[in-house]
Amino acid sequence: MLNKRKKQILDYVNRYKTKNGFSPSLEEIKKKVGLSSVSTVHHHLKDLEKLGYLEKQGGKVRSIEPKEIMVAIPLQGYIAAGQPIEAVNEYETINVPKSLLSRSGEHYALKVAGDSMIKEGIFDGDTVVIRKQSTVENGETAVALINDNEVTLKKIYRERNRIRLQPANPNLKPFYFKEVIIQGKVISTFRNLEEQERKDNFKFNQFLCGDVLEMFKKIPDNSIHFAVTSPPYNVGKDYDNHNDKMSHQEYLDWLYKVWIETKRVLVDGGRFAINIAPTGIRDFVPIHHDYIEQMKKLGMKFRTEVLWYKQTMLKRTAWGSFKSPANPHIVPSWEYVLIFTKGDNRLDGDQRMADITKEEFMKFSDGFWKIQPETQRKGHPAPFPEDLIYRLVKFYSYKENNILDMFGGTGTVATIAKRTGRNFVHIDISPQYCKVAKDRVDNEGRQKKLLA
Ligand SMILES: C[S@@+](CC[C@H](N)C(=O)[O-])C[C@H]1O[C@@H](n2cnc3c(N)ncnc32)[C@H](O)[C@@H]1O
């Protein structure tokens, strides 16, 4: 197996060559891969040449020829290198150098979420190539299926009455199981350098207009202090650019991938607030229960919930069997805000950056919030009321923290972030809503300047 550095160099050379038609210079490789000297690059290239991955033509620097043949294998979603997470199957393909596969067998790739295998050179965000097989030798790293539908990446040890799943991270404890189904062995690992480069150059206070999972690829790991969102509820709302009526399972599978990314980008101690309304008066759909289950499977801690009482009962029409117990309806006059944390409950920060007042703190820490729904719709079916976001942002983050809304709509979160001196990242698939959001934030900036 190639070591991490050599794989980085090989990936970069391959990618550069495909893009430009010629190979990068030693200096370019040095800069890209973060090496200290050109001679170290040269040394690695020599090794790659000896191993048959690259070949030089006429001894020229810009003539490293990748000999690599690329092969498409299925990318079957995420694997936890940490707490086991529910198996998700995505059916994309990914091109990998043939040298990363073993000579025989069926292969697939998985993206790694978590840092439990770092001592084996497998890092959060890496992609691992797996060969399908149902047994491994003691000490080999494998994909283990446990509890029917959770998968994890660990070193496997068979002990007398149990199987030990051993993390390769001295800070983490092993898991023990009576039964484990081995789904394959790790053959190799690599990192998408282009994606990494995009993350390294990421700037906050951005509107990322596009599909949430695509846009997440730009956001660095462990960079967001507070994520807050109201996802599409899959109830057939008329959004500008989104199918809000998938099958329930399809919807949950899609959101689960969004939650995995959310966890990845949160800092340790970072919070995630999901606003969700109880939906369906006749056919009640408890999506909030599903979200809580999903978060728990991901290893997020369910910290608390806020009841947002919307004070809208005056407009009531759906009674069901009026004045009869035959089939009366309860009309949800509230929404939930479910609060989860990644890792520690405590969010580190400079106390001088805590800008919540005593009155605000006392008021917001009572979890029953009476707030009218937003009346200024701005062409959107379900915008947040500003007060709801103001309370959450002030209560759960410090000034200058980074705040994310991955279904940002008309930009309420970005606007409040700007107003309160936080940084924001706004994602939405709709160009129309992104424009509304940008105008709102620009306007907020102008107001601030006028007041200053
Ligand atoms: C419930 S609304 C959020 C409204 C927002 N809280 C506000 O204050 O305006 C959900 C948003 O998710 C967006 N959306 C739906 N599917 C998406 C996707 N695949 N990627 C990114 N955004 C998406 C919709 O355009 C919609 O604006």
UniProtKB/TrEMBL annotation:
Keywords: Autocatalytic cleavage, DNA damage, DNA repair, DNA replication, DNA-binding, Hydrolase, Methyltransferase, Repressor, Restriction system, S-adenosyl-L-methionine, SOS response, Transcription, Transcription regulation, Transferase
One GO biological process term: DNA repair
Enzyme class: hydrolase
InterPro entries registered for this protein in UniProt: ArsR-like_HTH, DNA_methylase_N4/N6, LexA, LexA-like, LexA/Signal_pep-like_sf, LexA_DNA-bd_dom, LexA_repressor, MeTrfase_CN4_CS
Site (Cleavage): A81, G82
Active site residues according to the UniProt entry: S116, K154
Record domain Peptidase S24/S26A/S26B/S26C: where: 75-187
GO MF assignments: DNA binding; N-methyltransferase activity; serine-type endopeptidase activity; site-specific DNA-methyltransferase (cytosine-N4-specific) activity
Ranges where the DNA methylase N-4/N-6 domain occurs: 224-438
Sequence ranges assigned to domain LexA repressor DNA-binding in this UniProt record: 2-62
Superkingdom per UniProt: Bacteria
Reactions that this protein is recorded to catalyse: a 2'-deoxycytidine in DNA + S-adenosyl-L-methionine = an N(4)-methyl-2'-deoxycytidine in DNA + S-adenosyl-L-homocysteine + H(+); Hydrolysis of Ala-|-Gly bond in repressor LexA
Similarity-based family: Belongs to the N(4)/N(6)-methyltransferase family. N(4) subfamily. Belongs to the peptidase S24 family.
PANTHER family: LEXA REPRESSOR, LEXA REPRESSOR-RELATED
Assembly, per entry: Homodimer.
Function: Represses a number of genes involved in the response to DNA damage (SOS response), including recA and lexA. In the presence of single-stranded DNA, RecA interacts with LexA causing an autocatalytic cleavage which disrupts the DNA-binding part of LexA, leading to derepression of the SOS regulon and eventually DNA repair.
Protein name: LexA repressor
Encoding gene per record: lexA
